[in-house]
Amino acid sequence: MTALASQHTVPVGVRRAAPFGPNLFASVMGTGIVATAGASMPGLHTAATYVWALDAALLVFLVAAAVRRWTWASVRAQFQDPVMAQFWGAPPMALMTVGTGALLLGKDWIGLSAALTVDWTLWTVGTLLGLATSVLVPVRMIGSGERAFAGWLMPVVPPMVSAASGALLAQHLEGSARQAMVLGCYALFGVSLFATMVIVPQIWQRLVQHGLGAASTVPTLWIVLGPLGQSITASNLLAGVPVLPGQAAFGVLYGTITWGFALLWVALAAAVTVRTARRGLPFALTWWSFVFPLGTLVTGTSALAVRMPSPMFSGVAVVLYAALVLAWLTVAVRTLLSR
């Protein structure tokens, strides 16, 4: 979600021309979450389908550009950068976001069979890549001496996206295949959840001890919402594929507790963002951090509203979705104008 230079977490664009990096796939994540979150909003299904189509086209464009421009040397250089390396979590999440949109929305245009093929393909590739980033990037950081920032969550969030997306695919399986898929999704849920629990305290400690850092890095605080909102989504979507006792209760209990903390983080991140904006918040690709993480909170809140029908959940979901669309339009326009 950002192009940052190594060592000092300074935006690349400030000092040198930004390379074609994995962070650019954050635009696919952000656009895709607007579509998938809109699928659960009354009266927005058709509009959300068009947004999904736009997102699919954007993914194809970026993948084609990556194939043309990336070399082994450039990929290795980006991975060696201790900050840019974090954003290798973006491509697998981008793939799975488009795949989920195909199943939720694209099936109206391409049919269920084709949508399942697309989703299974993108989910499989995205899951494998996400598991790789969950291991390789943290190993890369051992002994680096780098200070934690919210971007450290990027390589460990993909397994949670896999868990949420896999729950939808599991609904189309039967018998032992369904059970294996659900158990696998809970395992993926655990990979991301416990990694997040290790990283978030480090982020908070850095904020307390060293402050916010450069203004352009402030939007990355919103990334913390990503694993929070996605875990709420995953736990409640998995509850819709019952193969274990207590899945529904776990989804509602875990989801509501985490939802409360997520709203607290929204308030904290918003306060810091507004305070920084008053002094000057220059545009950078970090602004995409406003979009996908907030979108996961929308999908999580909507999933809770399905499990536990309540005006509180449904009302907050609508408000959050309106904020999501506004954030997406703002960031998308600024991104286009900056090219």
Sequence stretches where pLDDT stays below 50 over 5 or more residues:
1-17
Taking the sheet with the most strands, its summary is:
none
Radius of gyration, Cα only, in angstroms?
19 Å
What distance lies between the first and last C-alpha atoms, to the nearest angstrom?
16 Å
Walk me through this protein's architecture.
The protein is mostly helical and 339 residues long. The protein contains 12 helices and no strands. The protein has helices at residues 12-15, 26-38, 45-69, 72-80, 90-110, 112-141, 158-170, 175-210, 225-238, 247-279, 292-307, 311-338. Helix 2 packs antiparallel against helix 12 and helix 9 (225-238) packs antiparallel against helix 10. The chain is globular. Mean pLDDT is 91; it is low at 1-17.
Key terms:
disordered N terminus; globular; 339 residues; 12 helices; 71% helix; mainly alpha
